[in-house]
Design a protein that fits this description.
The structure is a homodimer. Chain A is an alpha/beta fold. Chain A contains 9 helices and 10 strands. In chain A, helix 8 links the parallel strand 8 and strand 9. Chain A is globular. At the A-B interface, helix 1, helix 5, helix 6, strand 9 and strand 10 of A face helix 1, helix 5, helix 6, strand 9 and strand 10 of B. The structure holds a DNA duplex.
Chain lengths: 211, 211
DNA sequence: CTCTGTGAACGACTTCACAGCA
DNA sequence: TGCTGTGAAGTCGTTCACAGAG
């Protein structure tokens, strides 16, 4: 099973597993069976076992999975055993909030710089992160060896920003603008459309679906 | 095909379609074929047609889809043809940013109140939204007939908040806390874990996958 | 006996390909 | 001709169920 690459939904769940395992560790729990673990996440045990099996043999028959080593493994697989430098483009309300959000740092992502076009924002320091003019983009990306970027610019500016980022060598973009970005192959985009998430809830509530 | 309910991935794409159609409308484009539309979103034409077909017959053979009426239809399907009142629990950095974010209002979601436990936050007004003490939760939910809530409290408080929300009659929760919430059936939860999204990019960039 | 890892069966979603309408 | 709507075929992901390890 190892040879091919894991299905995308399985990789997404790895993050979910990691989050839950970190919680278990903080509660002092040293091992879990796939069944216990799956139940706590409202999914099936087979799914947990199969997802993990794509990347190796981490469990012990008759015992289960040891929490601490599995956390290490998942971090290694996801690439967060090392810290990533990240930049943010668009220091509006939403961008500023992300700069202040502590959650990223804890998970291995260091926001090293922010960018904007508005001169009144440039030069400011938000939560220890300096806001630069967008023209400094590639310079700073190179200096800090940045490969990931968060885009929080308005809708209409997003595509242009994405192109600048790609030219500057960015390899992954977390896109909060409600636009599909066109990027060269070799660059990954993860879109997060907050209004769309509320729409999904609206749909589910409106059509009174169970879950 | 109408009888059964649409697959979940199809409903998710409806939001994507709506966003793109709104853009087309703003550019003055009156109709699109499934092929043109699909190409602009990097998906297949058959997928677009089939997704829409779950909900009705919106296209004209030989012509394509008329943009404006389709926008109306999608809003009706998603339930955003009417405005939803929404509350937010957790007026920390991230919560405050969402209160200031204009995108929700435009898509049919009105933030009517925010809540926190910290007394120093209670009473403040953020972007026209008043912060109340959490003890006022059910009172205000009832007064404004609120059915959707956004949770931006710390990790450890999320489950408790979710339970309070459900008791107060909330039917959909947009959860930004990195925790799986247990809720009664009949309540929908949509989890958004920002750190997890960066992890996914980290994985993709680390394993140099195309996309 | 418990619990993992995994082929095989199953089901869900996507793509194909074409009949039929404009 | 151009394009939608849709069964049929195909692909992908999940669940089943069990051999084998502890």
């Amino acid at each position: 099973m190892k040879p091919q690459s894991a299905p995308d939904p399985a990789v997404k769940r790895l993050s979910l597993y990691l989050r839950r395992l970190e919680r278990l560790a903080s509660e002092g729990i040293a091992k879990v069976s796939s069944r216990e673990f799956a139940e706590s996440l409202d999914i099936t045990a087979a799914k947990v076992r199969k997802d993990l099996a794509w990347f190796g043999q981490f469990g012990s028959p008759g015992v289960g999975y040891r929490v601490a080593p599995l956390i290490e493994e998942l971090r290694r697989i996801l690439g967060t055993d090392k810290t990533w430098n990240v930049i943010l483009v668009g220091a509006g309300n939403f961008g500023r909030a992300l700069l202040q959000y502590k959650g990223f740092r804890k998970k291995g992502f260091e926001l090293v710089a922010a960018f904007d076009i508005a001169v009144e924002k440039v030069g400011r320091q938000i939560s220890g992160v300096k806001v630069h003019h967008i023209s400094k983009l590639s310079q700073i990306i190179r200096r800090h060896k940045v490969r990931l970027a968060i885009v929080t610019v308005p809708d209409h500016a997003a595509q242009k920003v994405a192109e600048q980022l790609c030219r500057a060598g960015i390899k992954g973009i977390l896109n909060f603008a409600p636009t599909s970005l066109r990027v060269p192959s070799g660059v990954a985009v993860d879109p997060v459309d907050l209004a769309a998430h509320l729409e999904q809830l609206s749909f589910q509530v409106g059509s009174r679906r169970r879950k």
